[in-house]
Amino acid sequence: MSAGTGPVSGADAGTQRTGRQDARTLARARRRAALRRAVRDLLRKPGGVAGRVILGFFGVLALLAPLLFPAETLEVTRTTQPKLASPYAGYPFGTDRYGISVLALVAWGARISLLVGISATVISMVLGTLVGIASGHFRNLLGAVLERLTDWFLVIPFLPLVIVLATVLGSSILNVVVVIGITSWPATARLVRAQTLSIEARPYVERSRALGAGEWHLVTRHVLPNVMPLVLANTTLTVAVAIASETTLSFLGLGDPFAVSWGKILDDAFGAGAITAGAWWYLVPPGVCVVLVVLAFTLLGRALEEVLDPRRRSA
Amino acid sequence: MGRYALRRAGTAAGTAVFVLVVNFFLFRLLPGDPIGLITRGRNMDADQIRALRAQLNKPVWQQFLDYATNPFSTGVDSVKYSRPVWGLIGERVGPTLLLVGTATVIATAVGLWIGIRAGWRPGQGFDRGSTAVTLLLYAMPEFWLGMLLLIAFGTGIGPLPALFPIGGISTPGVDTSTPAGWLDVARHLVLPATTIVLGYVAEYSLIMRASLVDEVHADYVTTARAKGLKDVEVRRRHALRNAMLPTSSLVLLNIGFVVSGAITVETVFSWPGLGLLTYDALRGPDIPLLQALFLLFSLSVIAVNLVADLLYGVIDPRVRT
User: Fold this and answer.
1) Can you give the pTM of this predicted structure?
2) Any idea what the CATH number is for the domain that residue A156 is in?
3) In total, how many domains does chain A have?
4) Which of residues 128-157 of B touch A (CB under 8 A)?
C-alpha cells in the first residue's frame, strides 16, 4: 500500500485522485497475483488434483442426469423390471425396491445432494462470516451477545438440533437447506472472529483508524479481504459436512420425500430390507458417491488451507 | 482454580438456560392444535384435556417458567408408548452407555496410537497410509459403514457366513444376567461398536497427528535429542507431554457428542438405546419424547464440557487465567 500512496502527499486534488486510483489498482493487481499463485499452488497439490477430478466428474453427472436417464425412467408406474434384482445387462447397479435402475437413481441423486450441500454452505458461510466479523469488530454489547450465541450454538449437539429443527419445519428441500445452513455456521464464526481480532490488532488498521476511517471502511477494506482466504478454505470443508448432514437427515426420513438424494436412496434401501435381502448393489453405489464427494471436498479444503497458510506451506 | 471453576460453571449454566429457551419455544412453532400434537389419537377424558388446555391458556412467560423450573416433570406421556417420557428414557440409558463407552475407549486407544506413530514421522510410509485410510473413514457416513458391516458379517455375502447377529442387544430368551448371557450381549455389541470405533479412530488419529506434528520440530525436542535421549524417550517424555494437551481436550469434549452421534448407528443395528428411541420419536413424530431427548442430549454435552474444562484446568494451569 505505502508505495501507491506515496505520491499523494503534498499534491493537489487532481493528482491526489490519480494517486488513490494508482493505489487501488496496485492493491488489486497484487491481490489478483496472490490469488493466481494460490490457485496454481492448489492445483499442483495431489489433494487438489484428486478433489478437482472427482468433483468434475460428479458435476458433469449431475448436469447430464436428465439426458442420460430421462425422468420417466424414475417413475414407479412405468418400470417393467424385476424388483431388487442384482446387476444385469443395462442395469449395472441392479434395481431398487420398485424395479428402477439404481444407476439412474444415483445419477439423479447427485443433483439434489450437491444442490443441498452447496446452498446450505452459502447460508452457513454468510452467517458465519457476518457473525464472526461483527462479534470481533464491535467490542460492545452486540459483540458480546454474538460471541455468546456462537458459543451456545457450538455446544448444542448438532444432530439432535438438526432433527428437532427438521421436525418443526417439516420436510422440503428448502427446509433441509435452511436447517443445515443455520446449524453449521458457529465453527466458521469462531474462526472468523479470531482472525478479525488478530487483524484489527495490526498497526496498519490502527493507522487507518487514526486517519479517520469509519467502521464500514475498516470492515470492508481491511478486515474482509484478510478474512476471505480463511472463509474460502472453510467453505470447501463445510460443503463436505453439509453433504454428509443431508445424507444423515434423509436417511432418518427428514428429507424431502419426493426428492431423490443419496441419503434418500439409502433410507429406501434400509426400509425395503436390502440388508436382510443381501442387496449390496442397492446400498454400495449411493454410499460410495457420498464418500467420494465428501472426500473430494475435504481434500480440496485441506489443500487450500495448506496453500493459504504460509506456516504449513513450509512444513 | 476456584475462580476458574466458578466462571466455567457460570458459562455452563448460561448455556443450559439457552437450551431450555430453545427447547421450549422451538416446539411452539409447530403448526396445528398443540393438544392434538401431544395426544395424537390417544383417548383422553374431558378432564384431562381441560387440564391441558388450562395449562396452555396461561401466559407464555408463565408456561416457560413452569417448564424451566421443572423440565423433568413426568406429567407428559409419550405419544407412541403412552408412558411418561422420562421413565422411557431411563430404560434406554444403559444400552447406549454400554455401546458408546466401549466404542470410546477402543477408539481413543487405537486413534491415539495411530496418530502418534503417523505424527512422529510425518510424510513417511506409515503416515501416508494411515492418513489416506483415516480420511476415507472420516468421509464415510457412519450408518452406511454400519450397513456394509451388517450385510457382510450379519447377513453374509457369497462365501462369507453370517458371523454376527443382525440386530438387537441380545438373543430373545437368553438371560442376560448369566455369563453366557454376557457373551451373547458381547456378540451383539461387536458390529455396532466397530462401526462407531472406525468413525472416531479417524477423527482422533487426525487430531493427535496434527498436534504431534506441531511439536516435532520444536527447540526443546532438538535439545532432548542433543542430550542423547533415545527416540522413544524423546517422544514419550517430551513431545507427547505437550502434544497430548490439545488432543485430550478435544477427546474429552467429544465424549458428550458421541452419545447423540449414535442415533444412526443404533437405528441400523436396532440397538435398544437412546438413539433408536430418538429415531422412533421422530418417525411419529412423538413431540413430547423428542423434546425430552433433545434436552437430555444437550444437557449431557454441557455437563461433559464442564467436566472437560475443569479437568483441562488441572492438566494445564495456563488456561485458568
Assistant:
1) 0.84
2) 1.10.3720.10
3) 1
4) 135-136, 138-141, 143-144, 147-148, 150-151, 154-157
Report the percentage of chain B scoring pLDDT > 90.
13
Please indicate, yes or no, if residue A39 is contained in any of the structural domains: no
* Residue B15 with chain A: CB contacts under 8 Å: 151-152, 155
Task: Write out residues 133-192 of A within 8 Å (CB-CB) of B.
Answer: 148, 151-152, 155-161, 163-165, 167-169
Return the pLDDT at A35: 78
Spatial CA neighbour of A260 closest among A54, A65, A92? A65
| Alpha helical stretches, state H, chain B | 2-26, 34-39, 46-57, 60-69, 85-120, 125-139, 142-149, 179-216, 219-226, 231-233, 240-268, 274-283, 287-315
- In whole angstroms, give the CA distance from residue B42 to residue B49: 11
User: Domain containing A134: what range?
Assistant: 48-314
A2 assigned to some structural domain: no
Task: Answer yes or no: are the C-beta atoms of A51 and A297 closer than 8 Å.
Answer: yes
By the CB < 8 Å criterion, does B9 face chain A?
no
Q: Is A46 on the interface with B (CB under 8 A)?
A: no
Using an 8 Å CB-CB cutoff, list chain B residues near A269. 147
Per-residue pLDDT of chain A (315 residues; tens, 9 = 90+): 344 444 444 445 555 566 677 877 888 888 788 778 877 877 777 777 888 889 899 999 888 888 888 777 777 777 777 777 777 777 777 777 777 888 888 888 899 999 999 999 999 999 999 999 999 888 888 888 898 888 888 888 888 888 888 888 888 889 899 999 988 899 889 889 988 988 888 898 889 989 988 888 888 888 888 888 888 888 888 999 899 999 999 998 888 888 889 999 999 888 888 788 778 888 889 999 999 999 999 888 888 887 876 555 443
pLDDT in tens, B76-126: 677 777 778 888 888 888 999 999 999 999 999 999 999 999 988 888 889
d(CA A222, CA B116): 40
ipTM for the whole complex: 0.83
Which of B14, B155, B261 lies at the smallest CB-CB distance from A275?
B155
B319 or B74, higher pLDDT: B319
CB atoms within 10 A of CB B247: 24
Q: Using alpha carbons, select from B196, B242, B227, B205 the residue that is nearest to residue B98.
A: B196
**Tens of pLDDT, residues B220-274:** 988 988 998 888 888 888 888 888 887 887 787 777 777 777 889 999 999 998 9
Q: Which residues of A touch B286 (CB under 8 A)?
A: none
Nine cell digits for residue A287:
454410499
Interface contact flag, A248 B27, Cβ < 8 Å: no
A159 and B256 within 8 Å at the Cβ level: the answer is no
User: Does residue A115 belong to any structural domain of this protein?
Assistant: yes
State the number of CA atoms in the 13 A half-sphere of A268 facing the CB.
Answer: 26
Q: Does residue A4 sit within a domain? A: no
Q: What is the three-class DSSP state of A226?
A: helix
